[in-house]
Amino acid sequence: MAKIKMSVPIVEIDGDEMTRILWKGIKEKLILPYVELNTEYYDLDLKNRDLTEDKVTYEAAHAIKRLGVGVKCATITPNADRVKEYGLKKMYKSPNGTIREILDGTVFRAPIICKGIMPYIPGWKKPIIIARHAYGDIYKNAEAKASEGDKAELVITRADGREERLPIHSFDCDGVVQGVHNTDRSISSFARACFNYALDVKMNLYFATKDTISKTYDHRFKDIFLEIYQNEYKERFEDAGITFLYTLIDDAVARVIRSEGGFIWACKNYDGDVMSDMVATAYGSLAMMTSVLVSPDGKYEFEAAHGTVTRHYYRHLKGEETSTNSVATIFAWTGALRKRGEFDGNAPLIDFASALEKACADTIESGVMTKDLIPIFSLEGITPSAVNTFDFLDEIAKRISI
Ligand code: NAP
Ligand code: MG
């Protein structure tokens, strides 16, 4: 059979530890036999980031801006221990943070659904995709302790030098105080990324804040979303047969639990941080969660939501057997191949992405899976059995049918 051709390259961003091993296996066993893979390769292996003083991360992000579609392997975000372990010149920033900043992107996280992996919420039949606004609020705050007798005020020095003071609290005992901000620019980018993505995947969109309590701050988020929706997206949503709903965060939480899934839930930074972990856990496993970064001008970067699975890697280095789940990383590849196919009108590439995704589901549904899924798997008539990292890839390869 002739291999599928690709006219425009995908930006391929390699990474670290166990996921780097999966990366190689996925390409060799699942993709290269079918696709004449055309990629622009950037190696974000921590040693190479150190060698290039992190230039390679910036180059990779700019390549996504240029080519439109990237796929990324999980990477180590160095901390003090890693600086020592790898003898790094400095403690580099999180590559995901750098790429997100350059693309001004929003991260959408979606669970991979297959039969036998039942969500903890039995009513959830379809994916719930969480979009997290990854700028500002408590993540860029100023905070301090206060003592009895202290007075805290919010001081804004206006552009003309005028000082405006708002009382926060006069402390009659010890306490704490915090200042946060956001910008119209960032909120608008977030809103557009959410509206575009909803149109892209044809799913309803919810957005929620606490505007009844925070009448200026959270209300600004509400106003920006509603304004952009009215002016730029309402008609397109109606044409696509999808809806946008703004509601209070409390109401959103209640609706989400009662729902059967199948929508995008746009969250403020903190809500998204917390709710994405809740939703991921409720769907069963972090190893079955994908993540896509979408910029307001429609560039895409696909990856797994989990990290480099360090504990498995150390076992692998010692020559011990591992059973690491490659599904989320495979779906990062299929997401990128499908998007490239859509951009270039390459139907065989889109079909291949779907066939590979189906092979993953078929493998698990037949009872063959990695160890992490065994405790959460239940399907009538099927006794699950665990396979190692590499046999799992072979089992998927056997089931690809195009
Ligand atoms: P992690 O790599 O997600 O792994 C945490 C634990 O979750 C693993 O030890 C494993 O549990 C389980 N797990 C995660 N993915 C799995 C998979 N595919 N198959 C089977 N089990 C899986 O998180 P971490 O250990 O906190 O972080 C490791 C490194 O990843 C850190 O250096 C961090 O900076 C980096 N990281 C990168 C990204 C990214 O690039 N997007 C995201 C998060 C973290 P058991 O050991 O119990 O089997
Ligand atoms: Mg979190």
Written account of the structure:
The structure is a single chain. This protein has 402 residues and is an alpha/beta fold. The chain folds into three domains: 1-113 and 286-402, Isopropylmalate Dehydrogenase; 119-141 and 180-283, Isopropylmalate Dehydrogenase, CATH 3.40.718; 142-179, no CATH class. It has helices at residues 17-31, 46-51, 55-67, 80-86, 95-103, 184-201, 217-240, 249-258, 269-282, 310-317, 327-344, 347-365, 389-398; strands spanning 10-14, 39-43, 69-72, 106-111, 128-132, 142-146, 151-157, 163-170, 175-179, 204-209, 244-248, 263-267, 289-294, 300-304, 368-369, 385-386. The strands form four sheets. Strands 2-1-3-14-13-4-5-12-10-11 form a ten-stranded mixed sheet, sandwiched between helices. Helix 1 (17-31) links the parallel strand 1 and strand 2. The N and C termini lie close together (10 Å). The mean pLDDT is 95. The structure holds NADP nicotinamide-adenine-dinucleotide phosphate and magnesium ion (MG). NADP nicotinamide-adenine-dinucleotide phosphate is lined by residues 74-77, 96, 286-287, 303, 306-311, 324-325, 370, 372.
Measured between the Cα atoms of the first and last residue, the distance is 10 Å
SSE string, helix = H, strand = E?
EHEHHEHHEEEEEEHEHEHEHEEHHHEEH
If classified by CATH, what would the architecture of the largest domain be? 3-Layer(aba) Sandwich
Order of the strands making up the biggest sheet: 2-1-3-14-13-4-5-12-10-11
CATH superfamily of the largest domain, please?
Isopropylmalate Dehydrogenase
